[in-house]
Specification:
Radius of gyration: 27 Å
Low-confidence stretches: none
Distance between the termini: 31 Å
Order of helices and strands: HHHHHHH
Number of helices: 7
Shape: elongated
Strand content: under 5%
Number of strands: 0
Length: 169
């Protein structure tokens, strides 16, 4: 029902998919998926969509009938339950993605520290009269200098982020 309502209301307003997509700051393909019932907009986007189509969210989610009865209310509540379940699943997927990105960032930082320990400043003994070695050595030294100062802060922030993402789930 939501997909048909989006399509009908968009056409009634005389908007193309592209025009409505621009108003909503999404790509046309997203709007097409909504109209074909392949996906549904999240709650924030539902509000924006209703505003863009000059209707209430209830009208957007309801059937085309104008007077509500108990069956319509039940249908709407079931639809809202499905939408909320989909939103919860998306939210959990985002949290898991963020958690794994933070874990990978921590592993990357540890790996770089191990590499820097293995190098043990050997670039400092290079012949800096050779311009290419001088440039490479300077770049490595600058990287190490900044990394050793910034990485612990980023690592700690990542660990805190990982802990917080486990708390929310």
């Amino acid at each position: 029902m939501l997909n048909e309502n989006i399509k009908n209301l968009r056409k009634a307003k005389g908007l193309s998919q592209e025009e409505l997509a621009i108003k909503l700051h999404v790509v046309r393909q997203t709007l097409s998926k909504w109209e074909n019932g392949l996906s549904v907009p999240d709650s924030v986007m539902l509000i924006s969509l209703a505003d863009a189509l000059d209707v209430s969210v209830n009208e957007l989610l309801s059937e085309t009938a104008t007077k509500p009865d108990s069956d319509d209310i039940k249908t709407i509540s079931e639809k809202l339950e499905v939408v909320n379940l989909q939103l919860a699943k998306r939210s959990m997927a985002r949290i898991k993605t963020i958690r794994w990105l933070l874990i990978l960032l921590c592993l990357f930082i540890v790996a770089i520290f191990i590499i820097l320990i293995k190098i043990n400043g050997s670039y400092l003994n290079w012949n800096y009269n050779d311009p290419e070695l001088a440039v490479a050595g300077t770049i490595i030294h600058a990287f190490e200098f900044l990394f050793v100062r910034i990485a612990p802060i980023v690592f700690l922030a990542s660990v805190i982020g990982i802990v917080l993402t486990y708390r929310k789930s």
